[in-house]
Amino acid sequence: MMALQGKVAVVTGAAQGLGKGFAEILLQNGAKVALLDINEKAGKELETQFNEAYGADRTHFYPVDVSSDQQFKDAFQKILSKFGQVDIFCNNAGIINEKQWEKTVSINLCGVVRGTYLALEHMKKENGGQGGVIVNVASLAGLGPLAQTPIYTATKFGVVGFTRALALASEVANYGVRINAMCPAFVRTPLIDSFNSEEQIGQFMGLADFTRSLMEKFPSLEVEEVSKGLLLLVKDDSLNGACLAMMRDGAGLVSFPKEIPKTPVAL
Ligand SMILES: NC(=O)C1=CN([C@@H]2O[C@H](COP(=O)(O)OP(=O)(O)OC[C@H]3O[C@@H](n4cnc5c(N)ncnc54)[C@H](O)[C@@H]3O)[C@@H](O)[C@H]2O)C=CC1
Ligand SMILES: CCCCC/C=C\C=C\C(=O)C/C=C\C/C=C\CCCC(=O)O
């Protein structure tokens, strides 16, 4: 089990919702945490709140839009200057916007790739790094389709595939870095509150009842429950390439078939 005392963590999308919960559970377990978010006001307020609660200089906020390569790189350098190292990197920032779908891809998928590659370059043993762990936040919609949000679903499938492929690369090439994914069902955060909006859902608004019936099948989780899942993926040294599915009735590591299950067809 990885002990978090003295470790340095980075969490994107940390100003509210799941990211705030992830940052807090890492602080409670002894890590220092760099908070990254596009929302400067909420991020700075959270930095003050966390430093009061967990000790001066345990957290620092960095304004970063994960869709910007430059902002991400600059912040990473500043984090290294302040904290000296990065051991844990959680790519959590994500949005739902089916209308501005290229923006959604740039944040939800490309943002995860940007963060992961920055962390990997620093952590990789072949670069003189000390190893570490990266956790990418996907969704249950990264394992099965959410009809109202095809682009969001595509980005989350992308996050799962990217995580699994890179975890395998890490194992084969011995990077010394573990890379895992989280796949929670609906979680009570502002993301869900803002969902009933034509601005974000566009042409798929008519499918709202279908989503509501799905939400009955997967009742909402609380941030605190999902945060315990993050802690598991960070601490358990045996987990690399793991996808943790989280639902109200329990969490579990997803098994992927070694062979492609298929029904034969005549061609
Ligand atoms: N709430 C839910 O039901 C579920 C959420 N997720 C995923 O969990 C992650 C976090 O979601 P929530 O906490 O629910 O959302 P949220 O909307 O409550 O929080 C997202 C945070 O990300 C920040 N953010 C947005 N765009 C950004 C950007 N370009 N750069 C940096 N920060 C940015 C926001 O300012 C906000 O603080 C997302 O990746 C989401 O897809 C996964 C499954 C279920
Ligand atoms: C296995 C089928 C896919 C199940 C997907 C389950 C949950 C995924 C949740 C998310 O990732 C994003 C969270 C919320 C957005 C989705 C719908 C909210 C709709 C609210 C409403 O219409 O009232």
TrEMBL record:
Catalysis: reaction(s): prostaglandin E2 + NAD(+) = 15-oxoprostaglandin E2 + NADH + H(+); prostaglandin E1 + NAD(+) = 15-oxoprostaglandin E1 + NADH + H(+); resolvin D2 + NAD(+) = 7-oxoresolvin D2 + NADH + H(+); resolvin D2 + NAD(+) = 16-oxoresolvin D2 + NADH + H(+)
InterPro entries associated with the record: NAD(P)-bd_dom_sf, Sc_DH/Rdtase_CS, SDR_fam
Keywords: Fatty acid metabolism, Lipid metabolism, Oxidoreductase, Prostaglandin metabolism
Top-level taxon of origin: Eukaryota
Keyword Lipid metabolism: yes
EC number annotated for this UniProt entry: 1.1.1.141, 1.1.1.232
GO biological process: prostaglandin metabolic process
Gene3D superfamilies for the chain: NAD(P)-binding Rossmann-like Domain
Keyword Ion transport annotated: no
SUPFAM superfamilies: NAD(P)-binding Rossmann-fold domains
CDD domains named among the record's database cross-references: ADH_SDR_c_like (cd05323)
Function of the protein: Catalyzes the NAD-dependent dehydrogenation (oxidation) of a broad array of hydroxylated polyunsaturated fatty acids (mainly eicosanoids and docosanoids, including prostaglandins, lipoxins and resolvins), yielding their corresponding keto (oxo) metabolites. Decreases the levels of the pro-proliferative prostaglandins such as prostaglandin E2 (whose activity is increased in cancer because of an increase in the expression of cyclooxygenase 2) and generates oxo-fatty acid products that can profoundly influence cell function by abrogating pro-inflammatory cytokine expression.
Protein family (similarity comment): Belongs to the short-chain dehydrogenases/reductases (SDR) family.
Protein name: 15-hydroxyprostaglandin dehydrogenase [NAD(+)]
